[in-house]
Amino acid sequence: QSALTQPASVSGSPGQSITISCTGTSSDIGAYNYVSWYQQHPGKAPNLMISGVSDRPSGVSNRFSGSKSGNTASLTISGLQTEDEADYYCSSYTTTSTYVFGSGTRVTVL
Amino acid sequence: EVQLVQSGAEVKKPGESLKISCQGSDYTFSNYWLGWVRQMPGKGLEWMGSIYPGDSDTRYSPSFQGQVTLSADKSISTAYLHWKSLQASDTAIFYCARRPWGSSSWYFDVWGRGTLVTVSS
User: Which are the contacts of A69, defined by CB distance < 8 A and separation ≥ 6?
Assistant: First the structure.
């Protein structure tokens, strides 16, 4: 199972919106609405930001939103803040009852 | 507060065995699947496998099947990740993470802080 494809880096200025794409196949992202997104600051454990494609856990800012179309999922961060600078990983459950993570995207706030 | 507390950093030599642990607190440990995720230095996240502590049912990633063993002792709310013979390429941070209850909950909502394993001669 290959990693889901994410852009290596995305950047934006404070207050702007950015979108991170996550491309998979019909065996993972395209098969179910089981896409999740994690934020990881340097030296820290991953933190759940989005589950079930677009559900935000309690405590996660509504500046974070998720969507999916076909085999591609997306995470949008609106009103970009300096604290959003981190690595972001998508993940999907697959038709072979496994999980696959994305390659990761470094978000830089200019 | 629901927590997963992982064992401390380890430094091992190639060929040695190792078992690291992950203890859950403030929830019914045996009722939730627990996953293990590897992060090699400077790299991304990789799902290794998951275990259901209630009956020790396990699922492995094909990439890790036969390379590691997952186990759990529900009586002490602890899960383990075990290597029989470490290699230098096993150097990484290993996270345990809880999968929430529910048939549509295919994600990890609580993560441990990670255990750094360094394998070097």
Answer: none
If you measure CA to CA, which chain A residue comes closest to B114?
A: A45
Q: Identify the CA nearest to B109 among candidates B53, B45, B33.
A: B33
A54 has a chain B CB within 8 A of its CB: no
Give the Cα separation of B93 and A63 in Å (integer).
Answer: 30
Q: Say if residue B101's pLDDT is above 90.
A: no
Report the candidate in A106, A108, A86, A101 with the shortest Cα–Cα distance to residue A5: A101
Q: Which two tokens stand for residue B37?
A: 């995720």
Q: Quick one: DSSP state of residue A84?
A: G
DSSP state of A52: T
pLDDT in tens, B39-52: 999 999 999 999 99
How many whole angstroms separate alpha carbon A46 and alpha carbon B39?
11
